[in-house]
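for the recovery benchmark. tokens below, seq after
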């Protein structure tokens, strides 16, 4: 029997309602505490609470972290495909790979936040289905460019003429992580071309999404075990659940809202949080993404290893 990969923790630092020193210091604390990767958003307006809160640009923030970190992988969870031509996205990911010494992950999704597209004059397309078709074409082109092909392509959404991505990434195979769970289109893109997949939701919902991914993998002849499965939750750790809840209320209130999405909120002791994560680990999710709003909770960042130790036998 193949040995299962270790459980890894990923810190998704919200880029809204923060400043660079706070963001930077949280990332450095996460690396010091043993987190495996650090991620942030790709948004131009805040997506929780008032839209006009301060928000840092994602690729630039990661570039700022690259030379001051040493070990953690760095990526967007996930990039908005609508914001950029795939040629530019490939160059951004490649440059981040060089700045970080080979630690970049190219996270990408179809995009969903119409308000920021309208605010900045970015084409949002004619509907959800079209954006996912655009995503599929883009991921195909990204893989070819990152793998060193000279690409000429003319199709529904993109035209490239003798496009080349030089220098090549440091990683021989820079991974592409696709976010989203669209049952017909997004999950087929993951099955065809994704090195990683990010999803979220309640356990029964995630089971259905995973079954859909399995169906697409079977249809295209892909071994699902080749795909890194990642699932995200808000996480706050304290010795007492009441203290964790109070800390969370203050943090999320700073962002002008009272929740971090329609997903389980893992707010409590390390033992409680580990037991809530365990069923997802047993489904095959070995990368657990913590949604961490500003002001970033340094106690949770420092103590995530306690949850890992409790899940070591999962």
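predicted aa per position
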């Amino acid at each position: 029997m193949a040995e299962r990969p270790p459980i890894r923790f990923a810190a998704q630092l919200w880029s809204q309602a923060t400043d660079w020193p706070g963001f930077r210091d949280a990332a450095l604390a996460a690396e010091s505490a043993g987190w495996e990767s650090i991620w942030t958003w790709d948004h131009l307006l805040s997506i929780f609470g008032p839209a006009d809160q301060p928000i840092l640009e994602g690729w630039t923030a990661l570039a700022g972290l690259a030379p001051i970190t040493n070990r953690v992988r760095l990526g967007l969870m996930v990039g908005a495909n609508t914001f950029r031509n795939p040629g530019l996205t490939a160059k951004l990911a490649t440059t981040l790979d060089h700045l970080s010494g080979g630690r970049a992950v190219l996270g990408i999704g179809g995009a969903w936040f119409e308000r920021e597209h309208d605010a900045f004059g970015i084409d949002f397309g004619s509907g959800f289905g079209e954006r996912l078709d655009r995503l599929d074409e883009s991921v195909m082109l990204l893989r070819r460019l990152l793998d060193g092909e000279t690409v000429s392509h003319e199709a529904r959404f993109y035209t490239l003429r003798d496009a080349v991505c030089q220098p090549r990434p440091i990683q021989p195979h820079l991974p592409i992580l696709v976010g989203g769970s669209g049952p017909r289109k997004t999950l087929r893109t993951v099955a065809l071309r994704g090195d990683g997949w990010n999803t979220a939701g309640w356990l029964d919902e995630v089971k259905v999404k995973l079954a859909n991914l399995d169906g697409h993998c079977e249809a295209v002849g892909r071994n699902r075990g080749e795909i890194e499965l990642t699932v995200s939750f808000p996480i706050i750790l304290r010795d007492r659940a009441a203290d964790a809840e109070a800390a969370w209320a203050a943090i999320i209130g700073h962002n002008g809202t009272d929740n971090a999405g329609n997903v389980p909120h893992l707010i409590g002791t390390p033992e409680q949080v580990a037991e809530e994560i365990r069923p997802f680990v047993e489904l095959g999710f070995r990368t657990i993404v913590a949604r961490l709003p500003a002001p970033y909770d340094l106690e949770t960042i420092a103590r995530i290893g306690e949850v890992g130790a409790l899940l070591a036998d999962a």
